[in-house]
Design a protein that fits this description.
With 337 residues, this protein is an alpha/beta fold. The chain is built from twelve helices and twelve strands. It is 45% helix and 14% strand. The strands form two sheets. The protein has a six-stranded parallel beta sheet, with helices on both faces. A six-stranded mixed beta sheet has the order 7-6-8-9-10-12, with helices on both faces. It is elongated and about 85 Å long.
């Protein structure tokens, strides 16, 4: 096995110079760096990562905690894709830990990544409360960023989207188009995002003096099947509605299929809006109107802020990324326009 000393001899430098090149600490001329990297390539030398990490106190890794109940669906595929890509662009490796099924297990996943000596950790929480997340951010030396949740105490450690406001705006758009009987398919109500979107739906109705009809609120669980089942329940009960908002696009797609099977033309009989603006949304028939949540921008800000913190920078503000309603063929004017 090739040693660092052999690399040094091949490059015509000292062992200490090779160490400085690998760690990135101290000045080394570009010519010398080139000779060292050429010697490494020619010799097949593999640095001892553990030793290097202990010396530099950095592992060049970022951790990400996401509970496995959230893995399903296009939205989280996009989240993981952009997290991995942007971590790679920063010259680091992404390590994923499963938050599983409880706040305690989310804590264990965070601790696991910290024990793995990740330089920083991103948490997309499902079970931990805002107060618990604030305590975790303050407890550890490594920077921890919370994605998609608004913290009360540590404003610089969160990047979030206001799901209540985004849903309220989407429902208000339907109201402005003349719809009054608007059905709503919830996400899992154990999910903070699901609760916020339902709250936005109710707020929009209240803002325009439209009474809430609880019978028009159908339970969903983020899947296409649950969207279809929600529509089946609404139709079976004889509920009249001219528009429907689903808490994500997967449920909206399932709802559209069942509406078609029930003989309800879209958008003439029922206008439909989803959330997340998945890649397939413009290619459905009719093309699906959807609220785009800026996942790419949120991940980019999260990773950039962590790197800045690792380099000694400080933030003292909280950042929200608003959703954007993209109207397509699935929405038309209602009977009161």
């Amino acid at each position: 096995m090739t040693t660092m000393l052999e690399v040094a001899k091949r490059a015509g430098v000292s062992k200490a110079t090779v160490s400085r090149v690998l760690s990135g600490n101290g000045y080394v001329s570009q010519d010398t760096k080139d000779r060292v990297f050429q010697a490494i390539e020619q010799s097949g030398y593999r640095p001892n990562l553990l030793a290097r990490n202990l010396a530099t106190k950095r592992t060049q890794t970022l951790g990400l905690v996401v509970t496995n109940t959230l893995y399903h669906g296009v939205y989280f595929s996009e989240l993981l894709f952009h997290a991995a890509r942007m971590t790679e662009e920063k010259g680091r490796q992404l390590i994923l830990a499963d938050g599983k099924h409880s706040a305690a297990e989310e804590r264990e996943a965070i601790q696991y990544l910290l024990d793995m000596r990740c330089d920083a950790v991103i948490v997309y929480p499902r079970f931990l409360s805002v107060d618990e997340l604030d305590d975790i951010v303050e407890k550890y030396e490594q920077p921890i960023m919370v994605l998609n949740r608004r913290l009360r105490k540590n404003s610089s450690h969160c990047v979030w989207s206001d799901h209540k406001a985004s849903c309220q705006q989407a429902v208000e758009q339907l109201i402005e188009k003349g719809h009054r009987d608007i059905a709503f398919i919830t996400g899992s109500l154990g999910s903070p995002t699901g609760v916020e979107r339902l709250s936005g739906y109710k707020a929009a109705l209240a803002q325009h003096g439209i009474p809430l009809r609880e019978a028009l609120v159908a339970q969903g669980s983020w899947t296409p099947a649950s969207g279809a089942e929600a529509v089946s329940g609404l139709v079976a009960r004889g509920e009249a509605f001219t528009a429907l908002v689903a808490s994500n696009d997967d449920m909206a797609i399932g709802a559209m299929k069942r509406l078609h099977e029930c003989g309800k033309a879209m958008p003439d009989a029922v206008s439909v809006i989803g959330f997340d603006d998945v890649a397939i949304a413009p290619y459905l028939t009719p093309s699906l109107s959807s609220v785009r949540i800026p996942v790419t921008e949120m991940i980019k800000e999260t990773v950039s802020r962590l790197i800045f913190m690792l380099d000694g920078g400080e933030f003292n503000y909280q950042q929200s990324f608003p959703g954007e309603l993209r109207l397509r063929d699935s929405v038309t004017d209602g009977p009161h326009r």
